[in-house]
């Protein structure tokens, strides 16, 4: 079952520019210069129930604009959207009962009242029964470790404490679909780990579908099997994270630590292998090839030289994504 179905989705904005000088300012009173920019450029996307999808891209790529259209905040210029079987913009009142949203830089909690009072207000808004609230939120509060924070005003919470409370607030009505837009921005490592663990639990226990946008690639690696990579409003990759990582096997670096000093003449070389000396007993091989080429290289080197250690330095997901962007800019 598809929770999200998007076809040829597009969102355009007008960008105005002012003329210089007094005469230019006077002319701007009557006519304005502008150009039309596509923040989201005809994307097609489907998300199945229970998936955890990383929606990533550089600043200005169109991530937040997409999320705002999927949640009904913005109306698309063209294309169709079906989320939980509804049109987010046209069926807004009914639709918001089926989603939870956390924007890392915006709060849905009331600033000057206690956290638990915000929760009670949201409980009324979403028409959650006392029994459902106690059963579900008891687990949420315990897992996120926010019990001691419930009687404190939001303005007295640290950023990490507030974000855990924001996440709990988005789940008061136990929605089947959760949108997280930069939920871990500015948080320390321990708080991030707690939030990641909790998101995994609700995904496993309730089959909650989660759409995550973030610049922290470690969040994506820890939570998402699938990633959608956006660049200038277009989807440039949509698939499994492990396949994206596997496709970058070319360019790996193999580091050999020998028991004795080795000269470059003793090492096998060809067009796909380039050696770099680190010290008297350590050499790095930059390999342009797949696993087979790497395996053959290690086999030949180990047969001819006594080895203390061999390390294959994996390319990080962040480096893979950076490379995709650079190649895209080079061909555009």
Write a brief caption for the model.
This protein has helices spanning 21-28, 63-70, 92-95, 115-125, 130-144, 159-170, 189-206, 217-223, 241-246, 291-304, 317-331, and strands spanning 2-17, 33-48, 52-57, 78-83, 99-103, 177-181, 209-213, 226-231, 234-240, 253-258, 273-279, 282-287, 307-313. By secondary structure, the chain is an alpha/beta fold.
Q: If you had to describe this structure to a student in words, what would you say it looks like?
A:
This protein is an alpha/beta fold. The chain has two domains: 50-246, Rossmann fold (3-Layer(aba) Sandwich); 252-314. The protein is built from eleven helices and 13 strands. It has helices at residues 21-28, 63-70, 92-95, 115-125, 130-144, 159-170, 189-206, 217-223, 241-246, 291-304, 317-331, and strands at residues 2-17, 33-48, 52-57, 78-83, 99-103, 177-181, 209-213, 226-231, 234-240, 253-258, 273-279, 282-287, 307-313. The strands form three sheets. A six-stranded mixed β-sheet has the order 5-6-7-3-8-9, with helices on both faces. Strands 11-12-10-13 form a four-stranded antiparallel β-sheet, covered by helices on one side. The longest helix has 18 residues, at 189-206. The model has no long low-confidence stretch (mean pLDDT 86).
């Amino acid at each position: 079952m598809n929770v999200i179905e998007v076809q040829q989705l597009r969102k355009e904005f007008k960008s105005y520019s002012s003329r210089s000088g007094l005469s230019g300012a006077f002319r701007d009173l009557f006519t304005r210069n502008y150009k039309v920019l596509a923040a989201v450029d005809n994307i097609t996307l489907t998300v199945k129930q229970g998936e955890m999808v990383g929606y990533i891209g550089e600043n200005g790529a169109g991530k937040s604009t997409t999320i705002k259209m999927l949640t009904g905040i913005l109306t698309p210029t063209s294309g169709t959207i079906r989320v939980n079987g509804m049109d987010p913009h046209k069926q807004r009142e009914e639709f918001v009962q089926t989603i939870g949203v956390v924007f890392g830089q915006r709060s849905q909690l009331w600033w000057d009242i206690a956290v638990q009072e915000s929760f009670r207000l949201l409980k009324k808004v979403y028409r959650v029964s006392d029994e459902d609230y106690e059963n579900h939120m008891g687990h949420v509060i315990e897992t996120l470790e926010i019990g001691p924070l419930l009687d404190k005003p939001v303005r007295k919470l640290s950023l990490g404490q507030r974000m855990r409370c924001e996440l709990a607030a988005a789940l008061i009505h136990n929605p089947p679909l959760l949108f997280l837009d930069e939920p871990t921005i500015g948080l320390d490592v321990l708080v991030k780990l707690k939030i990641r663990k909790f998101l995994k639990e609700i995904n496993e226990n309730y089959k909650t579908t989660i759409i995550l946008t973030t610049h922290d690639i470690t969040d994506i690696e820890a939570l998402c099997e699938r990633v959608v990579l956006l660049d200038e409003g277009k989807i440039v990759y949509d698939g499994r994270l492990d396949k994206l990582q596997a496709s970058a096997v070319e360019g790996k670096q193999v580091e050999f630590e020998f028991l004795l000093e080795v000269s470059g003449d003793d090492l096998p070389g060809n067009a796909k292998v380039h050696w770099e000396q680190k010290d008297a007993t350590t050499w790095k091989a930059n390999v342009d090839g797949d696993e087979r080429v790497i395996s053959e290289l290690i086999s030949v080197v180990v047969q001819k030289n006594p080895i203390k250690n061999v390390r294959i330095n994996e390319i990080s997901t962040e480096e893979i994504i950076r490379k995709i962007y650079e190649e895209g800019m080079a061909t555009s």
